[in-house]
Amino acid sequence: MIGHYLMFNRNCMEALETYAKAFNAKIGEARRYGDMPPAPAFPIAESDKGLVLHAPG
């Protein structure tokens, strides 16, 4: 099985919204860094908590 993962430079939600409009689609779910449980080994800056971590398609 081959998977794919698109990477965006801090503007993933903007890209998702553009693709949704272009293909007349809906964004089903977008998990953000702030949705993750706290992990001391992987601290998330407050400014990054609104960024999209994963958006299954």
Helicity range: 10-25%
Task: Write down the domain tally.
Answer: 1
Overall mean pLDDT score?
Answer: 92
Count the E strands: 2
What is the CA-CA span between the terminal residues? 16 Å
Q: Briefly, what is this?
A:
With 57 residues, the protein is of the alpha+beta class. The protein is 19% helix and 9% strand.
Describe the structure.
The protein is of the alpha+beta class and 57 residues long. It has one domain (12-54). It has one helix and two strands, in the order αββ. The chain has one helix spanning 12-22, and strands spanning 31-32, 52-54. It has a two-stranded antiparallel sheet with strand order 1-2. The relative contact order is 0.23. The mean pLDDT is 92.
List the helices and strands and how they pair.
Blueprint: H1 12-22, E1 31-32, E2 52-54
Antiparallel strand pairs: 1-2
Feature tags:
single chain; 57 residues; alpha+beta; two-stranded antiparallel ribbon; 19% helix; globular
